[in-house]
Amino acid sequence: MTEIMDRIKGATEFTRLDIRDAFNRLRVAEGDEAKTAFRTRYGHYEYLVMPFGLCNAPATFQAYINNALRDYLDEFCIAYMDDTLVYTKGSHEEHVEHVRKVLQRLQEHELYVKLEKCEFSVQRTNFLGFIISPEGVEMDPARIATILDWPVPKSVHDIQVFLGFANFYRRFIEGYSRVVLPMTNLLRKSNKFLWTSQAQEAFEKLKTSFTTAPILKHFDPDLPVTLHADSSGAAISGIISQPHDGVLHPVAFWSRKCIPAECNYDIHDREMLAIIESMKHWRHYLEGAKYPIQIRSDHKNLETFMTTKMLNRRQARWAEFLANYDFVLVHIKGTKNPADGPSRRPDYMENVEIPTGTLIPRSALRMLYPDSHVTAIITATTATPLETFPSHIGVHANTTPESSLRSRFIKALDKDPLAQEYRDNPPKPWSWQDDGLLLHDNLVYVPHDDALRVELMQMHHDDPLAGHYGEAKTLELLLRNYYFPGITSYVKKYVSTCDLCSRGKSPRHLKHGELAPLPVPSSPWKGISCDFVTDLPISKGYDSLFVVIDRLTKMCHLAPCNKTTSAPEFAKMFLHHVIRLHGIPDSIVSDRGSIFTSQFWNALTKSLDLKKRLSTAFHP
């Protein structure tokens, strides 16, 4: 929600659209209608369109409308379920054009608006429970009225319901955690529910806070940032502000309760904790700020924190974290610190001694590295970020593979059965690009070509810029641009058998069992190995060989067959070329081909009391 509100900074005109019968605009997949069946006294019924109440309905519709407005999202449009906001930072004519584009795109995807719930070309509108305008963000008065009329809670569940509703607007309330502290204490299982005068006072004060909450300004990265932070024994809080018309205006409030261990910190560390946690919470605002961040605290000793030579381990971690920010610590009186009240509570916890250590001062570290060298490193790592993977991999939206790779794709597509099937009339979400590439939901389809798929895996996993990621990250990199059926299992199998990963990464599983060689067969043809040699030149209608070798004598039998040999056909060959001549063996060694792992072959070997020994994948 915060990200959405940040997008509209600088907008001067808004249009709010409401989609009519949103979920019902999507058709249930053919064959899945029975999953939505329900019974009435008039008979049984099934939904043909997506109804409300399905667990995956919100995500499905959100994906659909995101795809419909993909080109406009975060440019001049925000879509959240059936609510769509068109905003413009320019002229009225530009806003009219933006609205026209959005409505046209919705019509193309058979989505229509409910006119009575729409607002056009306004400077102030209600969107997702917030009143947004060029001046900032406010709470919805209708929701505030609901809070003001809320009855006194009479149970733990009543408190949970009330706080769950009030938490939606906590960013508007100064010192929210401190205000609700008497009520949250009643939620502990160890405490018996007893509505005290302190809880009633907190309940009434929270209601009052909602009526007096200020308008929060939109965060502007081009303006200086001021952070007020303060702490007490029970809570920490922060306020982020920016100057408008020469006066500091709040952008957001934040606070939270201290955990028991944090209550034991001395006052110096608690004040620093408030600063650290506030900066973590607003990291997306503060990291890389255009101007030095002015951090204001009423604890004067913090001014020397960055130059002290003696830091304990916790403080050393904080100092390392603060090194990522450009800031200035400024001391102000507690009476002038707006974050002081939200966190103030008498400290009743005993301090806990923490062992201290030494740390090399920052001034000494800076002397070790010339400024030019440090600047070069910072420029290289932040000004021009590295690509996730080599540029010749890039395929997404309007980009295509490099010419050599593209030509290989097109050549392989000519032999791919799936591509040939979809050549003339591809079903959704398949489509053809003008340059001859087949797309699946805007991802390039990788043809069934082993060499091509292995090369893509090497680019996304073995390449130095890929960094030998694990299964999840490698799959995520690949799915940014490519798709083919079974891609998840293919990536899992490839990564799990990567030689460098297995040697360089520490295992996260139990130790493997001791390796042992296969036992020597007691007599000829008691232990055999078999496999298929495929893709041979066709001879007399055959393109493959069935190979079986006795592991003791190395005697070999070869039998012609086809690559499409089924498990029952293989069983007949095994009976004719092995059992008929040498009897039933005790064990058989094979790879994990589909024939050797089929249900038919498993049932046959079990009935013959034949022990199967399957080799490891990729390393037979």
How would you characterize this protein structure?
- The chain has five domains: 2-128, Reverse transcriptase/Diguanylate cyclase domain (Alpha-Beta Plaits); 141-212; 226-365, Nucleotidyltransferase, domain 5; 391-504, Endonuclease III, domain 1 (Orthogonal Bundle), CATH 1.10.340; 527-614, Nucleotidyltransferase, domain 5.
- 35% of the residues lie in helices and 19% in strands.
- It contains 23 helices and 25 strands.
- The chain has a five-stranded mixed β-sheet.
- A hairpin with a 3-residue loop joins strand 10 (226-231) and strand 11.
- The two termini are 52 Å apart.
- Mean pLDDT is 80; it is low at 341-401.
Cα distance spanning the termini: 52 Å
As an assembly, this protein is single chain
Shape: extended
Work out the strand percent: 15-25%
> Strand arrangement, largest sheet?
12-11-10-13-15
Helix- and strand-based class? alpha+beta
| Known CATH architecture of the largest domain | 2-Layer Sandwich
**What is the radius of gyration?**
34 Å
CATH topology of the largest domain: Nucleotidyltransferase, domain 5
What does the main sheet amount to? Answer: 5 strands, mixed
Q: State the CATH superfamily name of the largest domain.
A: Ribonuclease H-like superfamily/Ribonuclease H
Total number of distinct structural domains? 5
Tally of extended strands? 25
SS summary, helix count: 23
Poorly predicted regions:
341-401
Highest CATH level, the class of the largest domain? Alpha Beta
State mean pLDDT (0 to 100 scale). Answer: 80
Helix content: 25-40%
